[in-house]
Specification:
The complex is a heterodimer of chains A (273) and B (252). By secondary structure, chain A is mainly α. Chain A contains ten helices and no strands. Chain A has two domains: 41 residues; 216 residues, Orthogonal Bundle (MetI-like fold). Chain B has a single domain, classed as 3-Layer(aba) Sandwich (Rossmann fold), CATH 3.40.50. In chain B, the strands form two sheets. A six-stranded mixed sheet of chain B has the order 6-7-8-3-9-10, with helices on both faces. A four-stranded antiparallel sheet of chain B has the order 2-1-4-5, covered by helices on one side. Classes of the chains: A mainly alpha (273), B alpha/beta (252). The interface between A and B is medium-sized, with 18 and 26 residues.
């Protein structure tokens, strides 16, 4: 039989909880309702609704935009796999201590500085138009491939730094313990340090992938018919921006789930509750 | 008790500095087979550094360390091969947190000593059982008490069949009620004749288990001998001061 004191406390806790929920609901209603009212009563709203949120245009254009979005998906999936590998290799070269690795280490530093420092859209442009102009045999000229390479190079530079931070975050005592049981430096890295580092950097790594998934739209400047470009073409034909909204929804359909996975990995603190 | 035999580890005039700070200033020490040598001394007296230098985790500046007569501190010697013949247990356990207890114990067996998985795991299970950890094989270190973790660390160091075990204040990070179970594991190894160098703050344990006690002060061994002499009737003022400070703190 719980004591009165305890029942009293529980009742107070329930009251506090109910009051918190009521305040959250009310303030959400005021803020979101206010925003909606502001937009819906704006003088230009009828035209905006017609040009951005036209249901008929949406219905007609969505299948085409979605089909084009499939190209985005293929590009970012392949790019992400390449980035995971290239980023790791660059990070490993950068932390290698052997003197023989010095030139490679220098190159990796330059690579990260340069590719992280140039706007991604410029990289897509330079690689997409510059490489074919070299007219080298055996070098790809397909704008989809070149665009994907540009994105992969840009994001691998970021991801290499993410990996490096993760490797450096593993306590020195782990390396000592691995060496003490008789492992070589390479074995210590492979069996002890990397597995811990990769687990730790999974959230920031996926965060970079969210950024990449929407940056695939940059490839449109080279001409491939991916979602953004397809939407732009339909928009130009119909003088209606709704296809672009359709494209935006498709990008969200992949970036939001990825973000939720990031939250899950990062523990409950990051999630919206 | 198994009687000490010929020397396993010999240190001659070992010096080590970190930058300007001289941590070891000419250490001479002999550890004979089946012998347990306790290193005592205040924090910062160089006990940990000495053990790390023997296991070649730190490079010494001058002097020599011999393992079974071979100069292991010669720059031409491959440190990996030397570490495979020694075992080191850390104060903070340093278990691999992404591995289970069993995986921690078998990693060295499999990767450094080339044992097959089945062979290594069979031995690993037996070792864990020996240190009272049966049923804990598949637990991660996070789910275990400090005493259990340190016993896994001892099993891990012992798994490579070392010529000598180096124990670096293996009970200092433990809650008082967990100290006993770890000391029991060390006692067990001593009884079977394991050669050991034990850096410790536990004077009663040093008295019980060690054949020799060496008192380290500011990078030198000031006094050395059987525990009955060094701990009971120390010859040096510094040793007396150190022991009485421990006594005041209730640790002796």
């Amino acid at each position: 039989m719980p004591s009165d004191r305890r029942l009293e406390r529980e009742a107070a806790r329930r009251r506090r909880h109910r009051r918190g929920q009521a305040i959250a609901a009310l303030s959400s209603l005021i803020v979101l309702g206010g925003l909606a009212a502001l937009i819906l009563t704006s003088p230009g709203w009828p035209e905006v609704r017609e040009t951005f949120f036209n249901w008929d245009v949406f219905k007609d254009s969505f299948p085409d935009v979605a089909k084009a979005f499939w190209l985005d998906v293929k590009i970012f999936v392949i790019a992400e796999l390449a980035i995971l590998v290239v980023g790791l290799v660059v990070a490993l070269v950068r932390i290698a201590r052997s003197p023989a690795m010095f030139p490679l280490r220098l190159l990796s530093v330059i690579y990260v500085d340069v590719f992280r420092g140039i706007p991604t859209i410029l990289l897509v442009f330079l690689i997409g138009f510059g490489v074919p102009a070299l007219r080298l045999s055996g070098v790809p000229t397909d704008p989809i491939v070149l665009g994907g390479i540009a994105l992969a190079l840009s994001y691998s530079a970021y991801v290499a730094e993410v990996y490096r931070a993760g490797i450096n975050s593993v306590h020195r005592g782990q390396r000592d313990a691995a060496l003490a049981v008789g492992l070589t430096e390479t074995q210590a890295l492979r069996h002890v340090i990397l597995p811990q580092a990769v687990r730790r950097v999974a959230p920031p790594l996926l965060n970079d992938f969210v950024a990449l998934q929407k940056d695939v739209a940059l490839i449109s400047i080279l001409g491939p018919l991916e979602a953004f470009r397809e939407a732009q073409i339909i928009e130009a034909q119909l003088f209606n921006f709704t296809p672009l909204v359709a494209a935006a929804l498709l990008y969200l359909a992949v970036t939001i789930p990825t973000a939720r996975i990031v939250d899950r990995l990062g523990g409950p603190e990051g999630a919206v509750r | 008790m198994i009687e000490p035999a010929g020397p396993v580890l010999e240190l001659r005039e070992v010096t080590k500095a970190f930058g300007e700070r001289e941590v070891l200033r000419g250490i001479d020490l002999t550890v004979r087979e089946h012998e347990a040598v306790a290193l005592i001394g205040a924090s910062g007296s160089g006990k940990s550094t000495l053990l790390r230098c023997i296991d070649l985790l730190e490079e010494i500046d001058d002097g020599d360390v011999f393992l079974d007569g071979e100069t292991i501190t010669d720059p031409a010697v491959d440190p990996v091969g030397v570490r495979r013949r020694l075992g080191l247990v850390f104060q903070a356990y340093n278990l691999f947190p992404h591995m289970t207890a069993l995986e921690n114990v078998v990693l060295g067996e499999r990767r450094a000593h080339g044992a097959s998985r089945a062979e290594a795991e069979e031995r690993g299970r037996a070792l864990l059982a020996r240190f009272g950890l049966d049923g804990r094989e598949d637990d991660r270190p996070d789910n275990l008490s400090g005493g259990q973790q340190q016993r896994i660390a001892i099993a891990r160091a012992f798994a490579g069949r070392p010529r000598a075990l180096l124990l670096d204040e293996v009970t200092s990070a433990l809650d008082p009620e967990l100290v006993g179970e770890v000391l029991a594991a060390v006692r067990d190894l001593k009884e079977e004749g394991m050669t050991m160098v034990i850096a410790t703050h536990e004077m009663s344990f040093a008295r019980e288990v060690a054949d020799q006690v060496a008192f380290l002060h500011e990078g030198r061994i000031l006094e050395q001998g059987p525990p009955s002499r060094v701990l009971t009737s120390p010859q040096q003022d510094e040793t007396r001061r150190f022991l009485s400070r421990l006594l005041e703190a209730g640790r002796a």
